[in-house]
Amino acid sequence: MKLLFICSRNKWRSLTAEKIFHEVSGHHVRSAGTENNARIKVNSGHIGWADLIFVMEKKHIRRLREKFGTMLNGDKKVICLDIPDEYTLMDEELIEILRSRVSEHIEIF
């Protein structure tokens, strides 16, 4: 399964998710951000590639729908993890939250 993780700047939350889930068997993982100054800015290629999209906050769903609305219609599943922008890269608490919330939707172990 191809997993895409989205946050605002792709520097802390989504990049942490990409790093911790990239070795999970059977899954391919990428990350991107919604803002213009994102490390990697989400584009239509990312959306088309992904089987499942995880966003950190509801505002990210809104931004994706504004820009890629037609691509998100149909069977493209977008899941909000409700993780606020208050963590740094590879923060232990962030890793624990990501593992817990993502495991509700896919098998990660």
UniProtKB/TrEMBL annotation:
Source organism of the structure: Heyndrickxia vini
Protein name: Protein tyrosine phosphatase
Domain Phosphotyrosine protein phosphatase I residues, every copy: 1-108
UniProt xrefs under InterPro entries: Ptyr_pPase, Ptyr_pPase_sf, UCP029416_PTP
SUPFAM superfamilies with a match to the protein in the record: Phosphotyrosine protein phosphatases I
